[in-house]
């Protein structure tokens, strides 16, 4: 951290001299590759809606943790999200209903349960705003350390699993014929999304989490011809939008999360305009 | 005029033996009492109406569907109890046109432990070109899989199914979505591969016009085997006429 602080102090930008901005920029440098990578597989696997639903389940887990008086409700939320993801996978594999219908059922139940628990006995909803809106400007050194660990775990996971995940997502029958356990692979990825979403929710908040998990890859698809370009552009777009959003929020005094989300939307609009006939 | 060897007795080296096979979904019997031998180097065509159980039989062979009965593989040089290598080309293989996955990426995902998103190394790229050359498709290597035509996609998936060289090659409706010219080209290619590698090929199809020229054996299936034999025997049989409501049955 001290090296990062030293680098920031050496930069000729006034905003980089504030500790909260130094932390926020470091968090963005970690989150850009994290969400850039995750979003490629979430978009290819058509799991955007599912990752949104997981955010809701994380909120419910946090509410349960708070009501039980647990010191670190985030870990209760991780357990709840993993259980939610596994239950979802189990129901989806045994139902004829479309995946988005099943996700809708789970999402509604998770939100309802979270609000029910949070407001039980006339409780206030205000203390949960941190998780709903999120505030990257108040990210702590501990949270940055946790993001670094999550990023390291995701990179290792990607190196080991990305080939079979890609094949499973683009053609499950072909993947199965190549000896890939499709159901198990999908479940492992589902659990990985649950863990990452839940751990990141306190840093970025529920409202912008889905845009970070979807928009970088959605934009990258507009201009990529192969997996290398897809991953590279996705990470670069997340990084660019993150830095631009943070800078905009500093000078215009608006929510950093919302600014980053809007910058990602702008990137999508521009790439959509520039998408070419990709032979 | 092409000369092909129809049939082959059970005394030949038997590559795939299916005995008393039944498949149920719930209480419904999708397939019952299927007995079939496929010999090395044979091209066998499974025909039947929609919902007859053709794809179910292929899935049972691929190990993707539970079944009662015996499915046994054997081939020269194949070790006892070693699981067979099955090359599989799925039915109507459709890829999302928006997926940024190139043909090279698809091969790398299947064949390499190095993550495909890091790009292909020189050796891997050479290997992919070598595989695509088998189906005369080396120019397709940098195309996105979602942008390939039906015939191009079938060739790519065929090249993929041939690496590593399988004990048996299974194709589910390989001719669907391919134009007439492409169908002949694809069947010529399959015939060339069958002879070159002495490979057993099992395919489902609704295009009966190709069968006399290319298939060694045709199996008519409708929840069980109704008729099997040479293309002429099956396509001119009473069972074929009854199933497809066609007078004469000659294709």
Uncertain segments of chain A:
none
Identify the overall geometry of chain A. Answer: globular
Average pLDDT of chain B = 84
Indicate the proportion of strand residues of chain A.
under 5%
Characterise the protein shown here:
The complex is a heterodimer of chains A (279) and B (251). Helices cover 80% and strands 0% of the residues of chain A. Chain A has 279 residues and is mainly alpha-helical. The mean pLDDT of chain A is 86. Chain B is an alpha/beta fold and 251 residues long. In chain B, the strands form two sheets. Chain B has a six-stranded mixed beta sheet with strand order 5-6-7-3-8-9, sandwiched between helices. A three-stranded antiparallel beta sheet of chain B has the order 2-1-4, with helices on one face. Chain B is globular, with a radius of gyration of 19 Å. The chains are: A mainly alpha (279), B alpha/beta (251). Chain A binds chain B through residues 40, 44, 158-159, 162-164, 166-167, 170-171, 173-174, 176-178, 220-221, 224-231, 278-279, and chain B through 62, 64, 86, 88, 90, 93, 95-96, 98-102, 104-106, 108-110, 112-113, 115-119, 142-145, 147, 157, 160-161.
């Amino acid at each position: 951290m001290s090296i990062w602080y030293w680098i920031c102090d050496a930069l000729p930008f006034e905003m980089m001299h504030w500790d909260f901005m130094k932390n926020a920029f470091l968090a963005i440098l970690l989150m850009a590759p994290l969400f850039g990578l995750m979003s490629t597989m979430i978009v290819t696997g058509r799991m955007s809606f599912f990752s949104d639903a997981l955010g809701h389940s994380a909120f419910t887990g946090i509410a349960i943790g708070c009501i039980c008086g647990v010191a670190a409700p985030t870990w209760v939320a991780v357990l709840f999200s993993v259980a939610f993801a596994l239950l979802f996978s189990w129901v989806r594999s045994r139902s004829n209903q479309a995946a988005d219908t099943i996700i809708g059922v789970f999402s509604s139940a998770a939100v309802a349960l979270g609000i029910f628990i949070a407001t039980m006995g006339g409780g206030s909803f205000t203390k949960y705003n941190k998780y709903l809106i999120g505030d990257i400007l108040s990210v702590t050194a501990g949270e940055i350390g946790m993001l670094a660990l999550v990023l390291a775990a995701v990179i290792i996971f990607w190196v080991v699993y990305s080939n079979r995940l890609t094949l499973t997502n683009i053609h499950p029958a072909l993947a199965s014929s190549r000896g890939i356990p499709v159901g198990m692979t999908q479940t492992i990825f589902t659990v990985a999304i649950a863990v990452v979403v839940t751990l990141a929710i306190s840093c970025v908040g529920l409202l912008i989490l889905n845009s970070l998990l979807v928009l970088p890859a959605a934009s990258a698809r507009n201009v990529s011809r192969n997996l290398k370009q897809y991953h590279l552009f996705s990470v670069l777009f997340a990084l660019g939008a993150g830095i631009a959003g943070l800078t905009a929020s500093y000078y215009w005094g608006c929510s950093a999360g919302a600014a980053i989300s809007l910058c990602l939307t702008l990137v999508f609009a521009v790439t959509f305009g520039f998408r070419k006939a990709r032979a | 005029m092409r000369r092909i060897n129809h049939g082959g007795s059970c005394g030949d080296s038997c590559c795939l033996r299916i005995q008393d096979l039944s498949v149920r979904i719930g209480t419904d019997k999708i397939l019952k009492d299927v007995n079939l031998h496929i010999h090395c180097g044979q091209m066998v065509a499974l025909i039947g109406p929609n919902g007859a159980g053709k794809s179910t039989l292929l899935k049972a062979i691929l190990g993707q569907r539970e079944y009662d009965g015996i499915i046994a593989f054997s081939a020269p040089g194949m070790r006892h109890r070693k699981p067979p290598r099955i090359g599989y080309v799925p039915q109507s293989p459709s890829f999302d046109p928006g997926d940024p996955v190139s043909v090279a990426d698809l091969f790398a995902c299947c064949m390499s432990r190095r993550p495909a998103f890091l790009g292909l190394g020189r050796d891997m790229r050479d290997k992919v070109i070598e595989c695509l050359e088998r189906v005369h498709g080396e120019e397709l290597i940098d195309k996105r899989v979602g942008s390939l035509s039906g015939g191009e996609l079938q060739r790519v998936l065929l090249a993929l199914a041939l690496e590593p060289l399988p004990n048996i090659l299974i194709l589910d409706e390989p001719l669907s979505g391919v134009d007439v010219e492409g169908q002949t080209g694809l069947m010529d290619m399959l015939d060339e591969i069958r002879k070159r590698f002495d490979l057993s090929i099992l395919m489902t199809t609704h295009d009966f016009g190709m069968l006399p020229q290319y298939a060694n054996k045709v199996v008519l299936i409708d929840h069980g085997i109704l008729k099997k034999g040479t293309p002429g025997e099956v396509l001119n049989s009473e069972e074929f006429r009854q199933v497809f409501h066609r007078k004469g049955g000659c294709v």
